[in-house]
Amino acid sequence: MATYIFGHTTPDSDSIVGAISLSYLKNQLGEDCVPTRQGEINPETKWILEKFGFEAPELKTSYAGEKVYLIDFMERSQSPKDIDEATILGIVDHHKLGDLTTNTPLEMWVRPIGCSNTIVKQMFDYYDVEIPKNLAGIMMCAILSDTVIFKSPTCTKEDTKACKELAQIAGIEDYKAIGMEMFTVKSNVLGATPRALVTRDFKDFNMGGNLIGVGQLEVVDLSVFDNMKADLMDDMKKLKEEGGRHSVLLLLTDIMQEGSQLLVVSDEPEKIENAFNVKLENGEVWLKGVMSRKKQIIPFLEEQF
């Protein structure tokens, strides 16, 4: 029986590519593994897969009775609802420890670096398994995406090293140009519904018994949101009520200005203000230098909650 590999509920490029790359590695090592996904593919990930000739992993939302590997997450709030009925064989991740538990020992590859695919690259090196050219291409893109072309504070020398080595395998000289092309696709928000945008890269976190949802949209020009903010805020309010959330936050990240406009809908906005030592005006504030949800948002929220 096959083992399934998947990322978090609203998958980004790292989680989708990670499911594909880790499945390939595991299959080369003699395990029967299948990449899957819990949610819809976003435009950036679709572009990456099409550019290098990959199909999207199968959509699968129930894993009861299955053996699984998790990649790019270990939070219960980002897991399938029946995760307790699955057997977790291993986790590959670059986030903080989550609240999932297991009944048996498991394989753990967890590093404080910028991208899960950097860890998968290190696993390929550890097991001395050759990476195919097209697989190297999508892994390179995943690293460029998660590290915001090396601008994110989460980016490490290990990420840049892995990205350059993968680019060489893929036969790509100007990998930063590929990264900018990728982010230009990511910046195309016209025509998308407010719900599609708010949830494009959205994660729920349990903080002190409160459900906090945090989304992020990364673009090359923040002005694309000038006429959308009111609609985005309205949908955030609906999303908050629908999910029984305490707060919903949305980071509008400008990768050129290297900062984020934070939109907030919360039962206690003062806690959000205290977390970042700011004053919200009409539910929003500019956070200079803030580009990472994982490193610059979540830890400060958790201190408050």
Sequence-ordered SSE layout with sheet pairings:
Blueprint: E1 3-6, H1 13-28, E2 33-37, H2 43-51, E3 58-59, E4 67-71, E5 87-93, E6 107-110, H3 116-127, H4 133-146, H5 157-170, H6 175-186, H7 194-198, E7 202-207, E8 210-219, H8 229-242, E9 247-254, E10 259-266, H9 269-276, E11 284-288, H10 293-296, H11 298-304
Parallel strand pairs: 1-2, 1-4, 2-3, 4-5, 5-6, 8-9
Antiparallel strand pairs: 7-8, 9-10, 10-11
Give an overview in words.
The chain is α/β, with parallel strands linked by helices and 305 residues long. The chain has two domains: 3-184, inorganic pyrophosphatase (n-terminal core) (Alpha-Beta Complex), CATH 3.90.1640; 194-304, Roll (Diaminopimelate Epimerase, Chain A, domain 1), CATH 3.10.310. The protein has eleven helices and eleven strands. It has a six-stranded parallel β-sheet with strand order 3-2-1-4-5-6. The protein has a five-stranded mixed β-sheet with strand order 7-8-9-10-11. Helix 2 (43-51) packs across helix 6 and helix 3 (116-127) runs antiparallel to helix 4 (133-146). The protein is globular and about 55 Å long. The N and C termini lie far apart (42 Å). The model has no long low-confidence stretch (mean pLDDT 96). InterPro entries: DDH_dom (IPR001667), DHH_sf (IPR038763), DHHA2 (IPR004097), DHHA2_dom_sf (IPR038222). Residues 179-305 form the DHHA2 domain. It comes from Sulfurovum lithotrophicum. It is an enzyme of class 3 (hydrolase).
